[in-house]
Amino acid sequence: MRNKYIDYISIRGFLGQNNIEVRFDQSINFIIGLNGTGKTTLINLIRSALNCDTRALRGAEFEEISIFFIPVLGKNRPNLRILKRPTSTTMRWAIEYQYRNTSKADPIIVISTTDTTRSALNTWTIFTLGHDEEEPEKNAITEMMPNAIWLPLHRGLLSQKSSIGETIKNPIDQKISQIIIETTKYLSALDTIYSKKLEEFQQNYFLSMLNATVEKIENAEQYDLDKEQVGLEQIFREFFKDNTIYRTSIKNHFNRAKKAISTRRNNKPLLYNDFIAISDTIRLHKLVDTWNELQKDKEETFGPKNKFSEVINGLLVNKKFRFDERNQPLFTANNKKVDITDLSSGEKQLFIMLGSSLVQENAPFIYLADEPELSLHIDWQRKLVANLKHLNPYAQIIFATHSPDIVAGNQRNVIRMEHILEEGKSS
Q1: Across the chain, how many H-helices and E-strands are there?
Q2: Distance between CA atoms of 251 and 257, rounded to whole angstroms?
């Protein structure tokens, strides 16, 4: 129900005077424009609407927002209408949400007249540091909002002060702590999945010893025994770290097998030990085959983790990255650990954005950002969108940006605010 993208948005009273319509690509979108044309206002309205943030909506300049969605599966075209109305009893605005699963369906209506309706998406809770810490209000509409996330930390939070004038805990480091918790949880879940498959492998091997079937001994002549030996060594390496225990035994077995197979090919009589060597090789071949299939599963299971590490290492300069045995992120420079809080601001923002993408588990998500280029080197800006799509091909990206390097080769995906405003005047 939450797996959907934004198709287009219609806003009446945008910036207090314009009626605009914006159509979005399901994959990549860049909102660009001169200062004052409203690109930041637009991206913040989208965020507040999807986030059910009625406090932000009350302070925004609009009269009505209509958002039309495209579901990942199914033919229904759900839509959301948000109205801003004056209340009869107070000077405050009431925010009315109307959600329809189809254009002809009766709407689900939720009206908020207080500031209690807040973030419906836990991924955005970090951006309400100035608000109270009450739980977000849950209602029938918040559960139908698409999966969405604001990727970099909002620049307005970087210099927040407490009421007594002391700088609060660095919001970037807070967000990094959150990302570390989420990535560790996700990667540990992947470990559990593989561990269960490894346990099944062991169980099936022992059961196969009880359910052995007779095979033709000539089958062994088709095997590449050198590859079989490598595969068997990999299996033992998984369970026994000290290779001196098994390498000699494995080598001796395959030497016997090669000798026995050669004897048979030369039409010489086989001794009892030759039959045993060939029979064991056939049985071990099944084991190695099963192991190779397990390794394909392992590669697929840990694919997101490996892709993340490859992307990060492809961008870092004079540093290396990996996840340690506890799935904690580990940065090093000159073979020495670098504390993640000592990374540059750009490296931290990069880790936040890519880490946020990693934990979405390839689910359809809407990625929103205002000026994601902040603190990023030009080369990182050029590669950002491609890297995000590499980590999650099912993401819909909607960025407001000043940077031509962020846009890179995606000129056809540009939404120009000047054109949107001009079209709104002529409609």
Answers
A1: 11, 14
A2: 10
Q: Report yes or no: 365 and 392 within 8 Å, Cβ to Cβ.
A: yes
Give the span between the Cα atoms of 422 and 89, in whole angstroms.
Answer: 38
Q: How far is CA 301 from the centre of its chain?
A: 14
Could you tell me the pTM of the whole model?
0.82
* Contact present, 372 and 353 (Cβ < 8 Å): yes
CA 19 to chain centre: 35
What are the two backbone dihedrals, phi and then psi, of residue 316, each rounded to the nearest 5 degrees? Answer: -65, 150
The CA-based angle 59-62-64, given to 5 degrees, is: 125
CB 359 within 8 A of CB 180: no
pLDDT digits (tens, 9 = 90+) for 46-62: 999 998 898 899 989 99
Encoded amino acid at 308, one letter? F
**pLDDT above 60: residue 131:** no
For 338, the 3-state DSSP assignment is strand
| Phi, psi of 422, deg, nearest 5 | -65, -45
Gap between the Cα atoms of 41 and 220, Å rounded:
70
